Known about the structure:
The chain is mainly β. This is Heme-binding protein Shr-like Hb-interacting domain-containing protein.
Amino acid sequence: MWQFKHKGVGKLLALALAVSLTFGSGAFLQPSSAGAEPVSVVPGTVEVDKAALSNNNRDVTISFKTSLSDSAYLDKDLLEGIEIKRTGEGHYNWLSSQGIYELDDGKLILHLNNPLTGNANLIRIAIDYLADPSGNPLSLSSANPIVVSAPELNDYYIVSNSVIDGGRTITLHLSQPVALRDSVNLKNAITTSDGPLASEDTAELSASGMQVIIHLDKPLPSSKSINVNSSAFQSPHGPVGSLSTYVNLIKVGERRSLYVFPEQERDLDIIDLDSAGIYNNLADLDALKAAITVYKDEVVFDGDFEIVSLFSSYDGGYFRLKFASELPSGYYRLAFPANSLKNISGIGTTKELLTGRSFVGPAPQYQGAEVSHNFSGQTVASLFFDRLIDTLYSEENTPGALKRSITYSLKAGDDWIPHNLGAEDSVVFEDNKLVVTFGKKLNGTSIKIKVDPRTIIDPWNSIVIDETIETAALAIGSNVSPTYGGAEFDNNNHDVIFKFDKHVQPAPNVDLHRAITYGANDNALAALDSDATVSFKNNKVILHFPNALIENHYEFSIAAGTLADLSGNVLDEEITVTELKPTDLDLAPPEIAKLEASSDLELGKSVINITFNETIVDHTVINGVSHLKDYIEVSRDGGNTFSGLGANDSVRIEGNYIVLSYGAGVDSDYRVKVKANAVKDLFGNVATEDLTAEGLAEGNHHLQGNIYTDADTVLTTFSDSQWGSNVYRVLIKKGNEATSPLSKDRYEVVNNTVVIKQGVFSEGERYSIQVYSYGYENRKTDGSYGAISHHETYYMTTPSVLSTSGGIIATANVLANPNARNNRATVVFQLMKGNLPVANTAVYTYVYAGIVSAYFNVNNPSDYTVKAFVLDDYKGTVDSVGLNLATVVSEEEFDFLYLSSRR
Length: 903
């Protein structure tokens, strides 16, 4: 195939939009053989079959019910015979002023410089310009133009960037083709975070219009932002202002090991916090999977897994290893061979990378409790766990904290009376037990023990129990065996569940498959099949059968002496269940039960929990890759329009939730649509219809930020771009004093951010703030905030410096003040030679607590020292480090502050 610029043939483009019209007749002159006089002929008529748009509305393919010749009739130039009147234009214009054409396989294809928009585009073809394959003229009437409706195009944006030639050639990849405006020098529209391009640099737009290619005379010295002014392009669908991207020159794993994070004890997430993401550098994900080595406890682990590539607004690209079954507890790490990974800007690894170790396994599991008496007659409550436990609290650093985290209630009559532990009571940890000994006689018939979250820890793996633990009612001084409470079918008749009044376990030396028997339809009882399983969960015994039980009714028997409670009290009676019928199957698809949203301004997004009425499974996985994100849409205008998710949004399924991380934020009533065939339940029932639910955004109107006594106070909130320009009043309430307006000379509003000037707030006082904006609900702080010095937003230790043959490794501990309200900042290490700053390294952008480190590649390390800062607005220059938010404390002070913050 080949094509002319003015007339000729070419390749057929994709069809998308169809219309059908009939055109009237006209007069044509058909040339006769050489030397003969022309004779008049009657032209035929042609009916349009359909018209189609493709290539982002730039190509129009018109097909006819009568075939056309692949050459223009009478050698006329269709560039002058085709006219187009675009939506909103007042008159027709020739094709020659806005594009070219080609004829291909009887179809007419128009290639336009700029896309069609709107639903009133008219195309007409003049008489005497087309013929059928036999050369007979075909007539189209200009009184009946083709009407073409163009679908709305999304704004174009920079999808990604790639770097080659050591940072000299940078390619920006666009989401759709663009065209450069006439007389525009593309280079002049491009800036980096250091300013305009140098005079020796060049820039060009690729032939496809899909890439901006920048050639630098000198390579980028470090990671930079690159901005392109969108006014340089002709496309009407670009954003107003600049297209931006971040060129990252940090190789994956260059500064520190990749991180391994366990996800629900079945998956492993591999994340690099330094390089803005990790991406596959091999042929495909199958090749990457084959290249990865997984280690468990330093031995190669051969568990079957699939690998998926994911993206989050925090970590950029990352990988998830989804294993076929739950991972056995242990320490996991992964090895990636050289050249298998690249960062967000396409820079590949040059050596094997080994991740850090991460423990996979649950927090200690509460098993139950019992009450007994010691030799002194004191009441002792023992809480049992599945492994060794300890506490975060110590009497040396946090005296009395452990006792304050444990409370109990006594039943007196019908009432439960709460109590705190007293000086005469004691708490100790014995292997897998938390033991509370009461020094005084307890006045009640039953007791409940409650342990606050973050009190108990697995000391070997530093896994903390994050939820409250509360025992069932325990009879004081009673030692009775479990009481049977009934049986039922579950899990679509694959499970039979026996319930008791307390936690149960197998009695010693019992063969459960022989001790538990069953039979169907009054037949003799028999031992459990070998493929059936018996498990214990709290107060339940669960029989699981691989094949569902489908007979009319069943009888079950559990022999005496088979079960015991956690204190060892054996149930000495046989349990017999008769006439137990399987339940009706669950064939109903999952439904949305409710929506809940919360916003986190520090992370710049809303998190929406889409709650279903049952556990759900992703039904969009193709070749190991989930497409669930494409099935979720959000409406912020009452359901009039729904929009798909953005590139930085993410979704995941957790039990009966879809958790949506939504960067646009919701600050009012909203709706969420889960499209048909997105999810199914555990029984395979697919939700085959769109599911839509309405939610009310909660907690999204709060102002967030720290209240400073010695610096400007900056408060932010989720809202649209007009909120800030409509702010007209700021109210301050100090402690219990009356609320009073803040004079306008004491604050300013900058881009939806309220900046209250230094000097308004006093240290040691608490304040609440409200902001009024015309047309919007009032925004306020979430309660009262304590005013602090900006230097006490964080605490950090003096950097420790380790000199090596290749340079300097600096490490510091950083902790956010628990009274601070915003943890978004940057930890910066500054290399000093004498009193002169030489280089900065930013190593973190979101801080709560942890150890951070930086590496400086220098000769003669002994000539240098290192400072560390926590900054609110780091600019990346060595001579200015911005506002320092941290106070330096000793290691002992840091430990005390850290333990206090975890209470």
